[in-house]
Design goal:
By secondary structure, the protein is of the alpha+beta class. The chain has one helix spanning 40-56; strands at 2-5, 8-11, 23-25, 28-30. 24% of the residues lie in helices and 19% in strands. A hairpin with a 2-residue loop joins strand 1 and strand 2.
Length: 72
């Protein structure tokens, strides 16, 4: 399933399909784009949540991100 979002196509997983659900564990969100469990829409939602949380407590410093070397 895809949705047009400001001229950008965003892929969505199907939560009804157990094989496409994101798992939540002690190491964070687990999933893979190769199986449809970790989609662009999921990454966008996490990014938005982080931005809103930082704004809510006035964070102005840098946010450091690291690249996962595993296949996404």
């Amino acid at each position: 399933m895809r949705q047009q979002d400001q001229g950008v196509e965003v892929a969505h997983g199907h939560p009804q399909n157990p094989l496409q659900r994101v798992a939540f564990g002690t190491s964070g969100h687990r999933g893979t784009s190769l199986k449809g469990t970790f989609t662009e829409a999921h990454v966008l939602a996490i990014t938005q949540a982080i931005a809103e949380l930082r704004a809510s407590f006035g964070a102005t410093g840098p946010l450091f991100l690291a690249k996962d070397t595993h296949a996404l």
